[in-house]
Amino acid sequence: MSHLGLNKRPVNLALWTIRFPIPAIISILHRLSGFLLFLLIPFTIYVWQYSLISADNFDNVKTNFQSLSVKFLVWLFISALIYHLIAGIRHLLMDMHIGDSKVAGRVSSYIVLALSIILALGLGVYIW
Description:
With about 130 residues, the protein is an all-alpha fold. The chain has one domain: 3 helical TM bundles of succinate and fumarate reductases (Up-down Bundle). It has four helices and no strands. The termini are far apart.
């Protein structure tokens, strides 16, 4: 009957009403941080290239990095990198069947979240 489109199961299209488990949230955030890092690669390469052209350009980049908005963007980029690295290590360990049980997955998710927040806050203190 389901091939005729007569499936009577409920369909919930309001994703914000679904309560995701913490491992799912960590996995989704890992993908989002990877996408953000991917989008920022061209900008990062451009800034590095620009700063290496001459000493004046380097000083210009250094001066621009003193503004609050640029510091925030740098913090955001490095925080995403930290999170992506820690969550990626968790995924690699789980691929090797280390901590791949349901309980271990939940615990490691909280560890990833806690470490990422602590390191991001520490980075913020260092930057500002």
